Amino acid sequence: RLAFWGHASEVAVRLNTELEQPGADPVALERELLGFTFTDLSLQLAREWRLGTLVENALEGRGEADPRVSNVELARELALTAEQGWDTPEMKQLLGRLAENLYLPVSDVEQLVVRNAGEAQKTAACFGAGDASELIPLPQRPRARVRREAEDEPGQINRFPEPDPMLQLKILREVTSLVEDRFDFNLMLEMVLEGIYRGVGMDRTLFALLSRDRSQLKARYVLGWDQQALRQHFAFEVSPVKANIFLHVLDSREPCWISRESDSRLLGLVTDEVRYVTGEAPFMAMPILIQSRAIGLFYADRLPSRRPLREDDYSSFRHFGQQANMALSLLYQGR
User: In the chain, what are the domain boundaries?
Assistant: First the structure.
């Protein structure tokens, strides 16, 4: 939509005039004047720009192909409902549905939504859309206060995820359903990563992939705190003269849980380069295999919160990694 309206063509002016008429049917008018709908345009751009299967499935309304589509639909409904006010019964009901979907208390979800609205307004203003930013609906409180809340550290509103066995089970079932239906490698990895982050209750989680020539191991998907820094710094050269714990995990095809109590041989592989990423906090890593050959690994830690890792956490972490490996095995058996 922004791509279309940003060009202010003659047909755009005509469409805008028609849309302002009482009882106008937006979809019908789009097809009549443009030959396509805005949803068609968004879908084609998503494919051309390779925005990912989640965006495509959401635009096509394919909730059965990706359970996360329901969250996208709820977010859109939230934006529309907010235009009618933040204190309406409809908004309270919608926040309840969001809380149920996210497995969070309603109070936490409300704070999260308010913070995101403030962040959206601040971002729009930073990109020169000051007038448009004022149209983003915010709660009835001073806008400056909401903007300050948007600038606060996320941890002041968003608590670190706590281990949630029920959420773990839910995501594991969704991964199984995905494998049985229409397998999508990238979607499967994202879902497993979400299970580790939100279900196991980690601070930082990533999936790192080996390059085609197996000379580099680099972060591909990241969830949690310090995403930008973690994605940038989790990059290691694969070389016999640069052995480290992550390359050991790939070579041994075995998971590891590194802490001060770990075997001295493993601790010796926690090089300065690795420590630059992990700090002094314990961490876990698990290889992802295709036909018994490592292609990458999952990594997780609780460095920002300094919370300890326990045996149950490691067991759950391994379970998600095993689910990913099983899915990949089934994929290649079906080829």
Answer: 2-156, 165-333
Out of 3.60.15.10, 3.30.70.100, 3.50.50.60, 3.30.450.40, select the CATH number for domain 165-333: 3.30.450.40
Predicted model pTM? 0.60
pLDDT digits (tens, 9 = 90+) for 160-200: 888 989 889 988 888 887 777 666 788 888 889 999 999 99
Per-residue pLDDT reduced to its tens digit, 56-66? 888 887 776 66
Tens digit of pLDDT for each residue in 71-81? 788 888 888 89
> Which residue shows structure tokens 């994202």?
190
